[in-house]
Design goal:
- By secondary structure, the chain is an all-alpha fold.
- The protein has one domain.
- It contains 7 helices and no strands.
- Helix 3 runs antiparallel to helix 4, helix 3 crosses helix 5 and helix 4 packs antiparallel against helix 5.
- The protein is globular, with a radius of gyration of 17 Å.
- 37% of the residues are buried.
- The model has no long low-confidence stretch (mean pLDDT 92).
């Protein structure tokens, strides 16, 4: 588990160079990826569902990203986009294409639908967490100003 968390950390921290993000935020970006992977691993161990695990991984990752964006006064996408890399279903998509090329259409369909489900769960997790965080901060701002 520790090895995978470290790989998720580095898998999120290294793309920061490609995106030209401020070098001072590399560690926070790596933490975002590691946190998303920890949430993914916990949910996957409990449920066995990659789709549900991806949803909760993206949810945890984006809540962290939104909070760090407000703390460091930077866009949340600086943490969320590189942080989501460990959750992207690349091997599943590759498997779907490989099965399709090998004319194993049942497995290709199964892996393709799993890939779409995981991608949709990641998107939905980001959507829900962004909306909830935005609502909480607006509510907090409203309560403080009243």
């Amino acid at each position: 588990m520790i090895k995978m968390v470290l790989l998720a950390f580095f898998g999120s921290a290294f793309p920061v160079v490609l995106f030209n993000i401020d070098r001072k935020k590399i560690i926070f970006t790596g933490i975002a990826g590691a946190l998303g992977w920890i949430a993914y691993s916990i949910v996957f161990d409990k449920t066995g569902s990659a789709i549900m695990a991806s949803f909760f991984g993206a949810l945890a990752l984006n809540i962290y990203s939104e909070c760090m964006a407000r703390i460091l006064k930077t866009p949340a996408s600086m943490f969320c986009i590189p942080g989501i890399f460990p959750l992207v279903p690349g091997i599943t998509a590759y498997s779907a294409i490989t099965y399709f090329v090998d004319k194993n259409f049942n497995m290709a369909q199964s892996k393709g639908l799993l890939t779409l489900g995981i991608a949709g769960a990641i998107g939905f997790g980001i959507l829900i967490s962004s909306s909830v965080i935005e609502y909480i901060f607006k509510l907090r701002k409203y309560c403080v100003n009243s």
